[in-house]
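Budget justification note: compute hours in this period were largely spent on complex prediction jobs such as the one shown. Inputs:
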Amino acid sequence: MKLRTKDGGWNPYVAGGLLGVLAVLSAYATTIWLGKTSYLGASTTFVRVAGFIEKLFSTTHVAANAYFIKEKIAVDWQFMLLIGIFIGALISSLTDKSFKLESVPPAWVERFGPSVARRAIAAVLGGAIAMIGARMADGCPSGHGLSGSMQMSVSAFVALAMFFGVGILVANLVYRRKS
Amino acid sequence: MSTAQWLGLIAGIAFGFLLQKGRALRFDKQIGAMLLKDMTIVKFMLSAILVGMVGIVALSSAGVIQLGHKPMNVGAVVVGGALFGGGWAIMGFCPGTSVGALAEGRWHAIFAIAGMIAGAAIYAELYPFFKSTVLAWADYGKIGLPDVLGVPPWAIVAAFWLVCIPLFVWFERKGL
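Corresponding output:
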């Protein structure tokens, strides 16, 4: 088993295993210092960002919305986790020179060509659908997939099966060329 | 910054670093997994789960940490999970990886992020409707697999390892 991949990355089993260690350390640290165990997750922060943006236009609308009240619009632990992901990925990609400005993903170009506009429309639509789903399911591949599975939550295994099951189906419809 | 914010930031930096090193942030890797051509993110995720599970079970059995199951709300998880899966395949990122992808120069991730913020705003508006429909179908509450199956948590951990290790061997043999 090679420790480095061809593109200079780390062996995914090693990087993933270390992420498992991080998840446990983080659960422990939040319990000790915050009194409540926090598990890695990402999608709730998008609700908070939406809340902050909407607040610029109408504070009363945000204050009256049941979902924004439920999720509390604030820069909390998970919000900083996402900012941290940005910083960590930036450090990693700059130091191993894998940082690369890219306007359309290679696999997308192969199937749909280099149009940025076409990619943008699809990404916005896909992103909106995915986030509606993630909020409905109360988690994404981080909250359900990683954290929920580690805790052996029933909801996590069902969610993960749906994520990948439908993902595989749609990806095959969208990206596989008829040959 | 509060203690909570510092803890989140530090964990996030390590999380982003590992996601990037594992090359799990790329659009091509996520789509590659869904096309069953490149199992990088599957290897990455399953390895994290295998290791994390051991620590979480150990700490929660010892009473050090609390488990935080998300509710097994049937409509929420099945319909929401399906919507997420479909959107994920088109977008090619998940919420966490989109932010990291942007950081490693894949600036088109900004479109996915914008779409997800819009999706969150739409969900917030439709929440009362979903609450009285999809979310109201059947809710089994915060349940864990060991309780449902009536087996000790360690048995499930062992079963996971026994399933995943041969799967990894198979991935490597097939060069996936």
